[in-house]
Amino acid sequence: xxxxxxxxxxxxxxxxxxxxxxxxxxxxxxxxxxxxxxxxxxxxxxxxxxxxxxxxxxxxxxxxxxxxxxxxxxxxxxxxxxxxxxxxxxxxxxxxxxxxxxxxxxxxxxxxxxxxxxxxxxxxxxxxxxxxxxxxxxxxxxxxxxxxxxxxxxxxxxxxxxxxxxxxxxxxxxxxxxxxxxxxxxxxxxxxxxxxxxxxxxxxxxxxxxxxxxxxxxxxxxxxxxxxxxxxxxxxxxxxxxxxxxxxxxxxxxxxxxxxxxxxxxxxxxxxxxxxxxxxxxxxxxxxxxxxxxxxxxxxxxxxxxxxxxxxxxxxxxxxxxxxxxxxxxxxxxxxxxxxxxxxxxxxxxxxxxxxxxxxxxxxxxxxxxxxxxxxxxxxxxxxxxxxxxxxx
Length: 393
Known about the structure:
By secondary structure, this protein is of the alpha+beta class. 48% of the residues lie in helices and 14% in strands. The chain folds into three domains: 3-113, Butyryl-Coa Dehydrogenase, subunit A, domain 1; 115-207, Beta Barrel (Butyryl-CoA Dehydrogenase, subunit A, domain 2); 229-383, Butyryl-CoA Dehydrogenase, subunit A, domain 3. Strands 1, 2, 3, 4, 5, 6, 7 and 8 form an eight-stranded mixed beta sheet that branches. A hairpin with a 2-residue loop joins β2 and β3 (131-141). α1 (9-33) packs across α3, α7 packs antiparallel against α8 (276-309) and α9 runs antiparallel to α10. The model has no long low-confidence stretch (mean pLDDT 95).
């Protein structure tokens, strides 16, 4: 693809913003169905939003992570589940770009390919002639229903009882989908479980996860691109946080849309808008949203600038990337909670968006890699000179 054919960040953000009304309209049905509608997936594809992390040589955009943040924030303004699903596709798509170049030829032969995935090593791999055989189950696989490939993690037993986690690519038609997604938040993401039963994976589609986490990738062509030079976890962090920012913006939109017609029952106020309490609440919530955006953009700018300069990452920078992700989620959740608490008893009705937004940001905050407390503790450990207690940096 010629550079002139690649949309700018502003154009991509505009496309996402134009999708928001459709996403908002479809959000309730997506909740009922436990997955995004085909119409929503097609709209995201038509807008080119599945191409953001695809290499240019396959017709993709090789977008930087600042673009991912801003696009996801606009999608999240319409529907958190749609934004989350798009973000999750971006991360395994990036991971597919780390495999040997001829493997990428196979994956990206499909137009608007969607790759779902997980970082959890909840399956077992056995070495056989020409590859591995995988058995196991992965949970929380967002967007599995509409994906063509899944990036999986499986543990291969080593001598002395140790296990080596492996990252591999598997076509979705070789996996079983278990429709067990029945949750309070992010219901529209369809984050089901998938199962492998004696699935053979050729060696060319297998990479050692420690090498990947250490930035030792197998693609030669992509090594020349700033978009694929950063470590996996900072990239995943920057790819994820836009959804949280978008949910905070969505809560703000939902609150102010209802504000003109609202009173404060059992008070002397004629309208809610004239109450000093409301002034303090909205000021606090909007400032928290601004702070969340600051941390999201600081994270993305670190990832993009390090990639452009082809610089090595320090341990503290890797830990700060996790900390910034946690800070975005914490601040966005606090902002949403304030808007929700100021929305009154009528806001618990299912046709009022703030109740869904509240449940969605709660679900985001419980994600193991996005949990604010876990990420803050990790950053604090590193700042205090202690070794990190995780490989996921």
